[in-house]
Structure formats: structure tokens, C-alpha cells
Amino acid sequence: MGRRAHAMLFPFPCSGHINPTLKLAELLHSRGVYVTFVNTEHNHERLLQTTGGLRLRGRDGFRFEAVPDGLSEEDRRSPDRTVRLYLSLKRSCSAPLVALARRLGESDGVPPVTCVVLSGLVSFALDAAEELAVPAFVLWGTSACGFVCTLRLRQLRERGYTPLKDESYLTNGYLDTPIDWIAGIPPVRLGDVSSFVRTLDPQCFALRVEEDEANSCAKARGLILNTFEDLEPDVLDALRAEFPHVYTIGPLAAAMHAAAHDGGDHPGGAAAGLSLWEEDAACVAWLDAQAPGSVLYISFGSLAVMSPEQLAELAWGLAATGRPFLWAVRPGLVAGDRGADALPEEFVAETRDRCFIAEWCAQEQVLRHPAVGGFLTHSGWNSTTESIWAGVPMVCWPGFADQYINAKYTCGEWGVGLRLDEALRREQVAAHVEEMMGDTEKAREMRRNAARWKAEAEAAAAPGGSSYQSLDRLVEELRLGAD
Ligand code: UDP
């Protein structure tokens, strides 16, 4: 009997990275791996303020720790805070992670850290793993197609596709340039490869960060993806030519659900309900009172920011559908650090009887609720996989990073989505929602496809399924590394 594997997990400190990393932590723990989940001190404090914060006490073999992020209060208030956070972590966070791992190794009853698992954007943690002489694994939080497109940003830059020469290139049809040479990806528009090709910055700061972060995954022992084999077979085949150790363990939401019914340690224990924003439980009671399949759910994830004009256009589009809707309007969704207060008063008055505006909700539970019949989404990868797992068709309005390629696959390859134009128009919002949820041939086709993908996602995550087996292989690899 060898040493117990001990995984130290460190995600980039935002919801889109923390959520899937927490799920992975739970799954590893449910299979006997000792887990240390590391937040930044700032987020740790924030989580303690929420109802779910009690879970930070952890449980047997699952502990939470925190390291400083190095940001000042001024940095935190800056519109540039994500970039500052990225740079600060890169500059100052490796040493605290190494020190934490060493301290844990000297603590009674704690096995030594035997591997580091990081999310995207924190590649400096690869160096921490090297210093600790343990293998590193990257949980890259996008689709496989999103990851491959991010890898290819370097070629796009070297071949002169990006940065754009001037602003006119954003609207003159240039972004429609066909790109048909990315192995594993069907022909796509340049604009769909990634938001980062839209840069006008001659230094390409964000573009280079993305391409460097993706390419640095080659230094890791393995790449973990929140997808499943049957969802993206061609791109996974192509990816494996470059990355031999790819573990497809998604959809993570489905894997968690399957593990909870697998008779093992309940994987929801320490992490479920741990969220940087307080979840509004009343929206579920509201959904309980709605007819099956009647409600449109709208959310743009944890980072997207829209202008007050876009918010108003969307709001009036929703009003025009005449349908009940649940809208997660988080504080900060609207430019100028605003939230639901930016909604037009007349819109609120007109739709009050058939809508629920929440700041934040338990999205997986909402999407799985029988009342929900459609999702208007920014096509973030977590949201997309949660919707696929729930069997809910989508109207997609992508705006950042991999969201464009996710939307392209959602609407094209998987046939479960309709895409809105970049310039939001209320008429199109209403028309697409109607086409998705109304009595139309397109709606029936999307519902059929959504039901098929839901079944495939469940099968992948169930015992014996491809994602289940992939997780088995990952755990085995972690155990071998511990000996
Ligand atoms: N989410 C949530 N409640 C909300 C809105 C979003 O729990 O009201 C969760 C959602 O379930 C998903 C995550 O926030 O797991 C958003 O991740 P995604 O990759 O979709 O978008 P990002 O936030 O990274 O842009």
C-alpha cells in the first residue's frame, strides 16, 4: 500500500475557474485523494461572508487554505482589476504556494503534497510544482475546441491575421475571413476563433497572455478538460497529437451528480453551494409555480460587463416575448459597477408579474428545473456544459475569449442554439427566444438535439462512461505519482 495521493488545487480566483476546480476537488476526494483547495485570502474572506462559507471548514481529507493575491484596495477597484490580479499572482504567488505545500507536509496527519492541479491563467503554479518536485496537471476550463483555438492564437499572430490594423476591421467583414487550417476544427470565421483576435493593441498583451498560458500546458503531466469524448471527438483526436495525456472528465456537473448516486462519499459535501455571490433561493420557489418548459433563464456568468444601452435593448427584447423569465443580474454586470438598478423602470413595471430578477442563483439547479425551457447565455463554457447536461437549448450572445467558438459549436455542430448578432437588437432577441421556445419546427429540432446530448452527457459521466473512466485514469496517475 503506497502513500495517499495529496492534490493541492489552485484555480485562478474567479467563479468560472473556482467552480469547476471545486468540482474536480470533490471528485478526487470522493475517490480517496487527499485534497487541499487553495483560495486567495481575499476570496476566502468573501466566501466566509456567504451562507456556503461554513463549508470552508472542510472535512476529513478535504481542507481549504488561502494565500495572498498581492492586490491593493486601489487595484481591486480598478476596471483593470483582472489584469492586475493576473500580473500580481504571477509575480508573487509561487513562493506562498510552495511554502504552504511544505508546511502541510510537516503537519501531523497530513500526507505530503504529491501533485499540483491548477486552472488556466495561473501557469506560474507549474514552477511551484517543479520546485516541489511533484507533477502538475492543468484543468483548462474551456471546451477542447476553445483550448485548441487558444493554442493557435500564436499562428494567427505570426501569420498576420491579428492584431487588427485599425478599428474599421471590426466591422468591415474582415472578421468573416475563413480559417480552415486548424486541425480538428471545421472551417470557422476568424472572429469565431477567439475574442482575442479582435485586439488593436500592437503589443497584443491579452493575446500573448492567452497563447502563452495555453502553450505552457505542455509543461504539465496532463491536461484535464471539462468535456466528454462524444461531444468533441475530432478536436480531441487532433489535440492528442500534441498533448498525449488529455483527461476528459466532463460535464463536471454530471460527474458530480453521478458520483453522488454512486454510493461513495457524497461529493457535494464540502464545496456544493460555495459561491462568491449569495444565491437567491427564492427564485427556485418562483420556478416551482411556473408551467413546465415555460421559463427563459438569462445569465452572463461572473465576468461579462454590458453597457446600459445593451441592457435596455435586451430587457425590451425580453419584454416583447411575453414569456416568463428568470434573469440573473449580478452586481457589476452593467458598466459602472451597476446591476439591476440599471434596468429601465418602465421595463420593471411592465414585466413585474412574469419575471424574477435575482442577483445570483444556483444555476445548475435552475437549469435542471422542469419549468426552464430555454437559456439566454454568454456561452461561457461552464454555462454551456451545464445547459447541455440539463438538456436546455440556448440563445447565445458570446462576447469574450472562447465564448465565440463555444457558440459556434452550440449552434452548428450540436444543433442546440441560436446565435444573436454582436450588436444586440430587441427584435432579434424576441425572435430568437420565440424560435427556441415557441411552437416552431426549429424549437422541436433543438429540443430533440438537447435531449440527445443530455442523455450522452449522462452516459459519459455514469460508471463505465468515457468521462468516468477518464477520471479513473487520472486518479490512478495521481496515485502512481504518490508512490
Ligand atoms: N453561475 C451561477 N449563478 C448565476 C450565474 C452563474 O451559479 O447566477 C455560475 C454558472 O453555473 C457557472 C459559472 O457561474 O458555473 C459561470 O461560468 P462560465 O464559464 O459560464 O462563465 P464565466 O463566469 O467564466 O464568464
UniProtKB/TrEMBL annotation:
<dbReference type="InterPro" id="IPR002213">
    <property type="entry name" value="UDP_glucos_trans"/>
</dbReference>
<dbReference type="InterPro" id="IPR035595">
    <property type="entry name" value="UDP_glycos_trans_CS"/>
</dbReference>
<keyword id="KW-0328">Glycosyltransferase</keyword>
<keyword id="KW-0808">Transferase</keyword>
<protein>
    <recommendedName>
        <fullName>Glycosyltransferase</fullName>
        <ecNumber>2.4.1.-</ecNumber>
    </recommendedName>
</protein>
<dbReference type="GO" id="GO:0035251">
    <property type="term" value="F:UDP-glucosyltransferase activity"/>
</dbReference>
<dbReference type="Pfam" id="PF00201">
    <property type="entry name" value="UDPGT"/>
</dbReference>
<comment type="similarity">
    <text>Belongs to the UDP-glycosyltransferase family.</text>
</comment>
